[in-house]
Amino acid sequence: MGYGLYDGLLDWFLNTFGLDDKIQPQLRSTLLDSLEMTTILLFLIVNTIMLIWLERKIWPRMMNMRGIAFVDFNWGHFFGKTWKFGFLQNIAEFLKFFSKEDIVPEKADKFPFNIGFFAFIVAPPFMLGALLPLGGSAVIADPAVGFLLIFAMFSLYPVGVLVTGWSSNNKYSLLGAFRSAAQLISYEIPLILSVGAVVIVTGSFSLVDIAQQQTRTPLGLPFMILMPIGFIVFMTSLAAETERIPFDIPEAEAELVMGWRTELTGFRYMMSMATEYFILLIGSFIGVSLFWGGSYLPFLEEFNNIVDSWPLFGAAIFTIKIWIFIFIYIWIRSALPRVRIDQLLDIGWKRLIPLALVNIIVVIAIFLFDSRFFGA
User: What is the rounded CA–CA span in Å between residue 278 and residue 244?
Assistant: First the structure.
């Protein structure tokens, strides 16, 4: 990941066992990539658990006690039998799901029910760990197609949802799957168009290159400020892609029980919920790189030089930005009501797509007038 942490560790291990002269360079490179991939996956899993804990445990308790005003907040109310903020209860529920029986409906089409869930819903997000930068140039793989490959993986998710809901042989699951597929397809288009302007001004699909170009804009301003329309479209589309309030139509607990998840039990249900948060975390990685300049902080050049010298500082700043990004979505979830299915589709097709096209036109006009405005 560009930190050099595993180089010294691997050299020490090989020297200890006398393997430094016997191991081939290709094998050494493979071992380094494996260690780095394991680290980024652990980072994603731990942050996903923390995200679920924050949104399902801490935030509801805050809202129930004081609403959104944290005046004279008494933190002592959170200390109880489940330790701080119900942390142990969160771990207990996680283990409980593993102990639950995995029930497949008797009349379900078992092959697509299994393949649709594990191959198209669970596997793709975990495969993206190698493509996500964590500040600066710290990334395992930085292919030329970059986030285009990430969005291609995202496009597999509605396929898995539709196949899982259809093969469940349950009308609630089927209706929820159709709703989800319609929503995800409707918002994938504005999501891709929202970053089209970014690709035009940077000439790259690499998340690392895009983040670095934002350090060369006037005053080091990120694309969030230089392309506000595109950023708003991206945020809205990502909320719909992760099926979050106000776009949680596919679940609709009061109407469809749990939508396409109705027949999922035990481990499957837990993984379906965790994958939703996992995709939100990956989307935050992409948003921070595309619109917030990665680990770069404007107006703090001396500090940025220190960050360049100590990549771990860059990873810490990048992580803080990710959690700010996530907090915005948690805030929106608490503030907005659910929209109807017709309103949801109208927002995607009639509002966000025209706004994304307007953003591209405006950015191209400014770019042709003075490309230095976007750091080109």
Answer: 13
